[in-house]
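Consortium newsletter contribution from the modelling node. Members have asked for a concrete example of what our holo predictions look like. Here is one, prepared for the iron/sulfur cluster complex that several groups have been discussing at recent meetings.
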Amino acid sequence: MKKHNLNENFICRIWENETFYSDLKTINGESIEILDIGKRNFDAGPDFLNSRIKIGNQLYQGAVEIHKSVKDWYSHKHDADGKYNEVILHVVFYKDENYDDESDKPVSKNSRPIPTLILSEFISRPIKEIWNEIILNPSESFLLPCYPKIKDIPQIIINDFLKKLSKDRILMKTERLNERLLKKSGSNPSRIDWEQLLFEFICEALGYSKNKNQFLKMAESADIVKLKKMKTDILHTDSALFGISGFLDEQIHKNEYVINLKSIWNEQRDYLKPELMVKSEWNFFRLRPANFPTLRIAYASAVLNEILNNELFRKIIIMFEDSISVINDLKLLFKNLKISDFWNSHYNFNKSSAKKINAIGMERIGDIISNVILPLVLLYSRIYNKENIRERVMYLFRKEKIISRGNEIVTKMKEQTGKSINTISEEQALIQLHNFYCVESLCSECEIGKIIFEKKNIREPMKIIIY
Ligand code: SF4
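And here is the predicted structure:
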């Protein structure tokens, strides 16, 4: 297994979220059942206090200590520190290569052997996915190593650096789209290739952090070339997407909508021959009903229907050529896409609402415009040498006011940097700074870090970002 350089804060975040792992066992093969994860401790002493954990048949109450590897127990000298006498479980991410079961086994100062868990052996989702989810959801204790000194840095230095980062970000997104387009259709993409690209990346944005990869997988399986050869309406696109995503397999509810979807799916499945998913791939845990993937799939279906029957891609390009108010027109376009009636009153197939449900909010539309539409139209302008469109995209990116109030990262970065954010490009720049400099501990390459940490060893461990 490839070893990632995860810091202890990060491992604590993984440990806190029981959906990231399953079927835990100690190094000695005893089962571990978490009854209460306990309370995170940010002071001296073990990382979690008041945990209740059943190991084998024995129930323990006490502390949990988190480390990168087993040997950290001794290198951090916890064997000689009474504060760690209460540790009931030692959770480490990796097992050391030359781990010795006898000499490396952790023992407390009062000579009690402490059971150890190698967490990486029980992770139930790809580590990249877990990483993304954690960095997209910073905790209350989120702290940048340069805080609060960053607030003393001259604004002109911060602004110039953020300008560079915003440009890096839109070009990076454009490049990612370009790679997908080249992979799919070579250097001469057809209209349908552009439509498929648009659909895939809108879907990815609809998945947000918890279902991003699932949405992308579903969209890649919805072959627009084949769908265009069929007569489709919203019921057909619902059927295709809920069928591909695995939700129709388990529907036993006999309302008219579900019966129709299943019957259409029975006809579509053999023709589309998509890569099928299973319902358990989708994450619902800790999501508000308004963010349930089922409701988002219903919206994705409205997007797909608009692509198939109303030339959504062409409409968007025409807006960048002709509209005097592109962003407002885009907002209206995405706001008014029509989902099936069933989803006006349902969050999933079993959960209904007395109130009318809004399938998509302005936040998500803002996200789609900033992260998908602007980079995609920029790519289009580059491939077809449409200088007028390119200038328009870059102007909107620099000048247009942010549409959403920003995600958790933006909120935290605004607090920590003291920077107020007005435009799409400023918002994107803060995300770029967080994702590619702060998270990677690249303070030495950051214009802010170069000043703040000028005389110090910037790789010292305390400079790690706290999540
Ligand atoms: S990368 Fe820059 S902004 Fe981020 S923590 Fe380091 S110095 Fe601060």
